[in-house]
Amino acid sequence: MTPVQTSASRPRAADRLRKAVTAQYPLLYLLTWEEDRVERMVASLAQSAQPVVPAFVWTTTRGLVNGTEAVPDTLDAHAVLDYVIATPQQGFYLLKDFHRELADNPRLARRLRDAYYALKDRGKFLCIVAPVIEIPEELKKEIYLVEISLPAEDEIAPVMDYYTQRHFNGTITDQNLRQSLVNGLKGLTYGEMQHVLNGTFAGRREFSPDLITQILLEKEQITRKDGLIEFIFPRYRPADLGGYHQLKSWLSKRVQLFTKEAAQAGITPPKGVLLMGISGCGKSLAVKVISSLWNLPLFRLDMSNVYSGANGTPENAFRRALTAVDALAPCVLWIDEIESGIVGVKENVQGGGNTRIFSTFLTWMQEKDSAVFVAATANRIDLLPAEFIRKGRFDQVFFLDLPSEEERKQIFTIHLQKKGADMLAFDLLMLSKASDGWNGAEVEQLVEAAAIEAFNEKSRLTMDHMMRNLGKFVPLSKTMTEQIKQIRSWAYGRAINAS
To answer: 51: cis peptide before it, omega within 30°?
Structure first.
């Protein structure tokens, strides 16, 4: 039995499966959450074979089934292997719950290994479908792993077109809006896409840009379940970030680099930026601004969950997170305090697993071809090895220093306006001079403290409230003078000043 090759283009996941079958691997491990999608792929392979062969499906609740007909006495995992080995029937045997049965069961592992030799070149294929990799060590040479990636852009677009036709009785003529909606659906399974589109389109009469916002809100709920990557909803604009002209200029010149027009012009999207500097100077806010400025979804990689063990070994959890982010591209991946999360703190190195994660990350940054822009932040920059910050991994390294007098005026303006203050009642020059050596977070806290005092007095926020609270703050630049000097010394000549 051989699969028929056709000239029609197929989804990339189906191509990988077809290639494995063509190579006559009798034991296939299909890594995916989408059982129904894989079942359709396998059924298609069975129908395209010459001659046509059946596609069986096995579960622990129904046993082995071909269409509506169940094969007797095949509920047990050993029994289904015995049946497949003994039957002369060529075809595909999709095992849905088998990875759980295989875990910590050496007899079943042995029987599966027997099946490998018995089925070889017999036109029979055992396909284990599972969302996680659980392959016994002794079977790793016999089992061929096929990772069924999440639907790509060319698979998402027809699904979205179907639901727009179904709900609006038409198609989206605005190609920019259509592309943004397709991008918003990346990283979802077919089932999740169907739920998101039904929920987003229900009750609407026309297309509008806020559809993108609604899809992102639905996507936030879905990605939250995994626990490794967190969707950050876009809330901040460049105007919310005071100062840092150099950084903003660099970002503005790259707004269009994730578009199809840029790709057609041969422009490679930027890989990432490393924001290092003094705590409280707006590194996290700058990352959020990147997402809004470039109109790309922002995902935060939670390294504490990677190391927790709740998602498997740290190395496997980290690789799974990177795979998920690749499927979500184009997007921005935010890794906070990367020096401790990935690189490892020198005084408290987290063992070999941390070293392997670091190596995996470096390789991924160097070789990735997905449009994932990595925005990493670091406080303790002395912990970053030279190979981490060299060109080819990060496009640029920016140093975010304490804000200048003019930048502090901008930061005061931003936070006072958020409080609805009368700006004519404030002497911004005096405030910026009086707060010499303060970081942006400390300026924000001063405005917050003054606003609380005004609220308790049931009065409007005034300059007097600000001045009364000025003396109650001791800035970080005074308590950590030596460390700040060290950070500035390290950054000199190694990074571009964001201001």
So the answer is: yes
Return the amino acid letter for 250. W
CATH of the domain at 270: 3.40.50.300
pLDDT of residue 151: 86
* pLDDT tens per residue, range 382-410: 677 777 777 777 899 899 999 999 999 99
Give the integer Cα–Cα distance in Å for 375 and 361.
13
- The one-character DSSP state at 239 is G
pLDDT at 343: 67
DSSP 32-96: -S-HHHHHHHHHHHHHHEES---EEEEETTTEEEETTEEPTT--SHHHHHHHHHH----EEEEES
Mean pLDDT of the chain, nearest integer: 86
> If you write DSSP's letter for every residue of 335-394 in order, what string do you get?
ETTHIIIII--GGG---HHHHHHHHHHHHHHHH--S-EEEEEEES-GGGS-HHHHSTTT-
Averaged pLDDT, 218-247 = 81
> Structural domain tally of the chain?
4
Q: Distance of CA 259 to CAs 158, 179, 405, 496, Å?
A: 20, 10, 38, 27
pTM > 0.90: yes or no: no
What are the CA-CA distances from residue 284 to residues 88, 236, 377 (Å)? 62, 11, 7
4-to-8, 44, 405 alpha-carbon distances in Å: 11, 11, 71
Residue 232 lies in a domain: no
Inform me whether the pLDDT recorded for 2 exceeds 50.
no
256 and 393 assigned to the same domain: yes
Cis peptide before 330 (omega within 30 of 0): yes
Last-in-domain residue among 400, 425, 460: 400
Among the candidates 383, 400, 417, a domain finishes at 400
